[in-house]
Sequence to fold (236 residues):
Amino acid sequence: MSTISLPRRFALIPAAGVGTRMSARLPKQYMMLAGKPMLQYALDTFAASDLIAHTFVVVSPDDGYIDDMLSALPHLQGTVTVLRHGGDSRQQSVLNGLHEIRTQLADHDWVLVHDAARPLLDNIMLEQLITAIDGDKVGGLLALPIVDTLKRSHTGRVQTTVSRDELWAAQTPQMFRYGLLTHALERAMIRSEAVTDDASAIEMLGMQPKLVAGNPRNFKVTLEHDIALAEIFLKG
Fold:
């Protein structure tokens, strides 16, 4: 009589971007923050968690930085696998990564997709997400309720004020079953539907991912002033 294995949890970090919104000499994920490459913070967080079976990081085929970085981090040996199949977009990189690990995961295993540019994820946030999502039929994501007044603009002037009621700002990790997430991203790609996060692809299937309250610290380092703010948190 066959038995079904318990679902495992894997981290997948798309890190094939070049950081076009920053005037940097190297890709954003390798920029130094408080003495460490930005990408290392996420890798360290997942490696330190007993809830994560393994971490996969998706980089561009011609990435010349990842091997040097990992060779200097022996504590990550055996916890991280590099996938050199990054695409032209985050969406493509995640899907390529999922295809590459097909033989290593079951459809019911969980995949936690996390932005390399969110270095302030910690074990508390990670556990909160996993605890809230583990038994969920759809999956979900960390997110923050919008508290600021929102304005829609036109030619540099306010066009209208947008109600912030029930609006959330998506964060990562975003946690979905391997089979469901792969199907959702494949479907979006076939239909040429651009998605900026994994939850959007799930929503296009008519499903409703669960929102799990995140933390303002878990912001995405996108612009140059974000670097100084991240370093304040990391050093503090």
